[in-house]
Amino acid sequence: MSAGSARGALGRYGEDLAERRLREAGMVVLERNWRCSEGEIDLIARDREALVICEVKTRRAIPFQHPMEALSPAKTARLRRLAARWLSECWVPRNGRLPHGGVRIDLVGVVLPGRGAPVVHHVRGVG
């Protein structure tokens, strides 16, 4: 298995765990891996009246940076642009208006230890 395909499998596994966490928190997942020419949104969900743009970061435990440290200001700005594009291309045509509860950016960090269960952290409103 190449490094790219191993990284892709790791990312998909982390997104599976993140999606499960969001659903357990009562959210409705609307889309996964939405792509356009400007980039990708990992998960798009609805949390009551709010739309949630969710970035998922998955890391092996050591020696890599903790996933919660991986959301830079530039990445947050890109997620905001992607959210605006998704709203204009997908949400508004279906619903005729913006979401009543606004838009929020969440981060789900998944750490895979050498042994034991993955650790999933969900932080709401990171950007």
TrEMBL record:
Gene3D superfamilies: 3.40.1350.10. SUPFAM superfamilies: Restriction endonuclease-like. InterPro entries: Restrct_endonuc-II-like, tRNA_endonuc-like_dom_sf, UPF0102_YraN-like. Transmembrane segments: none annotated. It comes from the Bacteria. It holds the Pfam family UPF0102. Coiled coil: none annotated. Belongs to the UPF0102 family. NCBIfam families: PRK12497.3-3. HAMAP family: UPF0102. PANTHER family: UPF0102 PROTEIN YRAN (PTHR34039:SF1). This is UPF0102 protein NMN56_011500.
